[in-house]
Design a protein that fits this description.
Elements: H1 7-14, H2 19-65, H3 70-73, H4 81-89, E1 103-115, E2 124-136, H5 140-147, E3 152-162
Helix pairs in contact: 2-4
């Protein structure tokens, strides 16, 4: 015994006008998640590059402000830590921040190594600036909805340069 549908239901069963809308509704959350992930990775890379640029500028500053005879005179570069941290956190011109707001500079550690060899100045001073930073994901609140915590990355960024002195 065949099942007979009433006429309006028969017309509705034969038409597929809304199928594309339903398929789009099913795919849309995945497309939005893919877009958010792409933007998140791009923002993370931009933030990391900003940190690298700040550490490189601080290292260059240290290479110019530290005396070239620091190895023979027995000096230290530890006192430069607050200045270097300020350089990494802020742009020197106008005080406008160069780092995106989702970056926290936890600590900055300048260090000095004296390399002996056949150099013009021996031992040759080599400085290194290491910054410990925490980068929070910009869309961390969205990810926190799933596991209850906002994701972040804590890493060290360092740059080494030869000290030329004043």
């Amino acid at each position: 015994m065949p099942l007979r549908l009433p006429s309006p239901l028969k017309r509705f069963a034969k038409r597929d006008d809304g199928a594309i809308l339903v398929e789009f509704g099913l795919i849309l959350p995945f497309m939005v998640l893919l877009l958010a992930g792409t933007l998140e990775v791009a923002r993370l890379m931009w933030s990391y590059q900003a940190v690298i640029a700040g550490v490189r500028d601080a290292s260059r500053y240290m290479s110019r402000i530290t005396p070239s005879d620091i190895c023979s005179s027995g000096g230290s570069v530890a006192a430069l830590a607050p200045t270097l941290k300020g350089m990494i956190e802020n742009e020197r011109k106008g005080g406008a921040g160069i780092l995106p707001p989702n970056i926290t500079v936890n600590s900055v550690t300048p260090s000095l190594t004296c390399v002996t060899g056949t150099y013009r100045v021996s031992p040759a001073p080599v400085g290194q600036v290491t910054a410990n930073v925490t980068i929070d994901f910009p869309m961390g609140g969205l990810f926190a909805a799933f596991d209850g915590r906002a994701p972040s990355i804590t890493t060290n960024v360092s740059d080494t340069t030869r000290i030329f002195g004043q």
